[in-house]
Amino acid sequence: MTDIKAQIDVLPGLDKTAPLLQVNDLHVEFRTANGVARAVNGANFTLQAGETLAILGESGCGKSVTAQAIMGILDTPPGYVTKGEVRYRGLDLLKLPEEQRRKVRANRIAMIFQDALSALNPVFSVGFQLDELSRVHRGMSKQDARKRSVELLDLVKIPAAKQRVTDYPHQFSGGMRQRVMIAMALALDPEVLIADEPTTALDVTVQAQIMTLLAELRRERNMGLILITHDMGVVADVADRISVMYAGKVVEEAGVFDIYARPSHPYTKALLESIPRLDLRGQQLNVIKGLPPNLMNIPPGCAFNPRCGYAQDVCRADPPPPAYQVAGDRTARCHFWKDVLGDE
Amino acid sequence: MFRFIVRRLLQMVLTFIGATLLVYALMFSNQGSPARVIQSLVGERPVTPAQVQALTERYHLNEGFWVQYGYYMKGLLHLDFGTSLTGRPIGDMIAQAWPVTIRLAVIGVLFAVLFGVTAGVVAGIRRSGIFDNATLILTLLLISIPTIVLAPVAQFFFGIKLGWFPPTAGGDPTWWALVLPGLVLGSLSLATYSRLTRTSVAENLRADYVRTAKAKGLPPRRVIGVHVLRNSLIPVVTYIGIDIGGLMSGAIITEGVFNIPGVGFNLFRGIRTEDGPLVVGFVSLLVIVFLVANLIVDIMYAVLDPRIRYE
Amino acid sequence: MSNLESIAAAETPAANPAPTGPPGGAKTDKPRSLAGDAWRDLRRNPIFWVASALVLLVVVMALVPQVFTPADPASCALSRQYAPPSGRAWFGYDFQGCDLFARTVYGARASIQVGVFAMLLAGAIALVVGLSSGYFGGWVDNILSRFTDIVLGIPILLAAIVLGKRLAGDRQGTGIWTVVIVLGVLGWTTASRVMRSSVISAKNQDYVAAARMLGAGHGRIMFRHILPNALAPFVVVMTIALGGFISVEATLSFLGIGLKAPAISWGIDISSSTVRVRENATPLIAPSAFLAMTVLAFIMLGDAIRDAFDPKLR
To answer: Is residue B297 within 8 Å of residue B241, measured between CB atoms?
Structure first.
């Protein structure tokens, strides 16, 4: 295996004892001609090495934006990080100059995206796009980089890697392309991998293969994995901890078993209840009535209150509920979390 | 890839046959006695019965349309474009006129590509900036002003009034004499390339693979200079081939106004003097050029965009 | 010329087939349609108003030139050759002693007439070909596309030259309808392609399948369901093509194979004034400026409409 860690720059301010990734009170807004959309309103996450954190939520709840803000690849304009910290081993990435931030990307924190067909450049071969990483970040020669790329394709179990390395993205199947993306992400041995809906565009069987691959690689390298998804089925198998997001905030954070067994936020509860269950056959499906809020016009107080069965007047007025400590490692942003917990 | 080329070649042959048939039919389809045909060909020139006889034989006017077309095609395949009403073989006229037009076209295309594509890239990157808006306005003007306006006005202004360039080229023109007409010829193309590049770059900047490239920690110069540019230039490069048609049309006017003895000028004169065979001959040639250019463009498109190769 | 249409087609996105846009603006949550959004954007665009004003001006000039000048463009007297501008003749007189302003104003008529009718003809052909090609697909599409390729294979000016000569023959008269036919018959290709791709993307939408299930026949589906949603890019290309037709007409007249005297056309005027430009430049500048402005107006209009309908610019 090529020694890839050879020439990594040493970043000032790194604290080996701090959590791998810690996001504190992150705020991101999009300034458009029609108004300001507040996509992320105080998100908090902690990720330790060797852990899989799932960020769960509907479309538009701010999960992808958070990931992009962590990576520093937000489209600015119109997106702006207005508040908060993103600490990689204690070092606040948001305060780094862009040059250094760029070095962190792909080297320490890598990301894979949902639709591999559009995420890969269609006019360059897969090998070229893999080689780039080794050549730009590690200064490797063309031959060495290509050797490394073939190794990477082997790593993600693409058959006949040596022949396929010169193929183009559209010549691969969906699952294979996603593996290529994973190979690209792991090329520089990062410590954190952010996977933004990696399996949403794939068939169920291929989904399972990819998730297994991700879990395996994560285990082997002791990486921290952030899995962003709206699919509760995928999460149950793979995640250690879950953060549920709604309207740009983390409304509940807990270990995976706790959340599935006894949710402590009405939104999480409603999500779980809306999963169709075979043993309740013949009964009407549960839905969460209403729609997610318009991010330019988030209701005061708790953003979920218009759709919530537990809502009272205190929920409809500012200030919004703080993150109550439900247990040692659980928080929930709901004034009535005890009721939700008790109702299970 | 090979199959792709073969397929395109076949298509081209088909289009070529169709186009030349159309041109030929338009000029020569049966409209009555040979005398009438000849009369309509020469327009208002008087023709003697002897000339009528000679022309009838030469152009096989006594025979059916398809036979005539057959002779015509046979001639074309032997690169015999017939004879002008002035008696000169059109092939000779082409051989003499061609080099000048190529020089003119080279100046035009170089000018258009250099300034147009560069401006388009910059405008596409800095959308809505001052540069972008200025380019949009300028290109809009260049596109709207027809060559028949631009050429004479440029000639008057830069050639006569300001005297920066020679107002006409004439005889065997030097490269310098071809600069002003070249710029005029290229200006419409410049505007088009610029707009196309701008749109293409702006679109590609929003593409998903750009986000991936950024996430890979690639420096912005590489993201734009390698990833975006390669994708953006594909439609532009392919368009340049299609633009040959526009260049040819523009050349007719430009060469006429600036007195450049090229292909366009000959055609211009042929139209004015109502020299039917010359017109048809030159137009056929230009059609061939146009089709070949399109074929090359299609092949280049396949070379540049791997997705096309495997259709 | 064909350049204009190519740009128009290249820059115009395929029709957005969805009949309604996403809900929720900043203030109200009324569902908005694409056409409604587009009209709103169009109204706000100053270019739209400027272009429309220019177009209106030229059209009025074409319809009632008498309003702009009492002079008769055909009454020329060599005694007045190159006489300078005066209260009666704002632009002075040309080399034949004709009132230049009057000639320029009356020249609008030929341009608009040719432009509009050519557009109607080309539009009709493009509509039929594009709609059939896109909707029926299969061998219909194949044949029509090959045919389109062939017509496209000849640059429009060259084909116009050949066709124009053929149609005009030795006929007398101004040749307006000749030019209209030539332009209409050669100028439909880009619009047809645009219509075809719009129809193809609209065809695959669910509402078409729904209409079919409800028993709608081909005609009804084509005209009531697909056409309205495929119209926007088509309109854009046709507007820009109108500008192009005016330009080609002037070019043909310039070359002497379009309109002929006694028709009054900017192309004719430009042609005759170019050779005499050292004597007096005004007869060149006037029709040139008007021609350029008219073409510009239509292109700006087409641009503005396209920008209003482009979902990516929202």
So the answer is: yes
In this structure, are residues C114 and C179 in contact, taking their beta carbons and an 8 Å threshold?
Answer: yes
Q: Which residue of chain A comes nearest to B310, CA vs CA?
A: A171
Q: Which amino acid belongs to residue A294?
A: N
- Does the beta-carbon distance from A297 to C25 stay under 8 Å? no
Contacts of C1 in chain B (CB under 8 A): 146, 246, 249
State the best of A31, A34, A295 to mutate against chain C, taking most chain C CBs within 10 Å.
A34
Residue in the block written with tokens 């366009």: B264
Task: Show the DSSP H helices in C28-99 as ranges.
Answer: 34-44, 46-63
**DSSP label at residue B113:** I
Mark the ranges of chain A whose per-residue pLDDT is less than 70: 1-13, 344
Q: Determine contact, residues C174/C219, Cβ cutoff 8 Å.
A: no
DSSP, residue by residue, A181-215:
HHHHHHTT--SEEEEESTTTTS-HHHHHHHHHHHH
Distance in angstroms (rounded) separating the CA atoms of residues B231 and B205? 10
Inform me whether the C-beta atom of residue C59 falls under 8 Å from chain B C-beta atoms. no
Distance CA C52, CA C69 (A): 22
Tell me how far apart the alpha carbons of residues B2 and A51 are, in angstroms, rounded to a whole number: 51
**Please, which residues bridge with residue A176 across strands?**
none
pTM listed for this prediction? 0.79
Query: Coil, helix or strand for A109?
Result: strand
Chains B, C: CB contacts under 8 A, how many?
156
How far is residue A243's CA from residue A222's CA, in Å, rounded to a whole number?
21
The answer to whether the beta carbons of residues C32 and C20 sit under 8 Å apart is: yes
Task: Give chain C positions within 8 Å (CB) of A296.
Answer: 26
pLDDT digits (tens, 9 = 90+) for B174-230: 888 888 899 999 998 899 899 889 888 988 888 899 999 999 989 989 998 899 998
Q: Give alpha helix (H) positions in chain A.
A: 63-71, 98-104, 116-119, 126-138, 142-155, 161-164, 174-186, 204-221, 232-238, 256-261, 266-273, 313-316, 337-342
The answer for B 134-153 residues in CB contact with C (under 8 A) is 140-141, 143-149, 152-153
Q: B: neighbours with 3+ CB pairs under 8 Å? A: A, C
First to last CA, chain A: 51
Partners of residue C7 in chain B, C-beta under 8 Å: 143, 192, 195-196
CA–CA separation, C69 vs C104, rounded Å? 10
The string of pLDDT tens digits covering residues B25-72 is 666 654 455 555 566 556 666 667 777 777 667 666 666 677 777 777
Q: Which of residues 81-100 of C touch B (CB under 8 A)?
A: none
| Residue tagged 């509009």 (tokens) | C116
DSSP bridge partners of A54: A227, A242
Cα A155 to Cα A182: distance, rounded to the nearest angstrom? 10
Question: Chain C window 227-256: which residues touch B at a Cβ cutoff of 8 Å?
Answer: 243, 247, 250-251, 254-256
> Which 192-221 residues of chain C touch chain B by CB within 8 A?
none
Distance from CA of C284 to the nearest CA of B (A): 8
Do residues B214 and A106 lie in contact, with contact meaning Cβ atoms separated by under 8 Å? Answer: no
What angle, rounded to 10 degrees, do the helices at C156-168 and B229-258 form?
A: 40
Residue C18 zone, left/alpha/beta (φ > 0; ψ -120 to 50; rest)? beta
- Strand pairing class (A192-196; A109-112): parallel
Spatial separation of the C-alpha atoms in residues C120 and C89, rounded to whole Å:
35
Cα gap C171→C105, rounded to integer Å? 27
- Is the CB of residue C5 less than 8 Å from the CB of residue C240? yes
Please list the ranges in chain C whose pLDDT falls under 50. Answer: 1-2, 15-29, 314
**CB within 8 Å: B245 and C300:** no
Residue A78 contacts C, CB cutoff 8 Å: no
Q: Does residue A34 contact residue C26 with C-beta atoms inside 8 Å?
A: yes
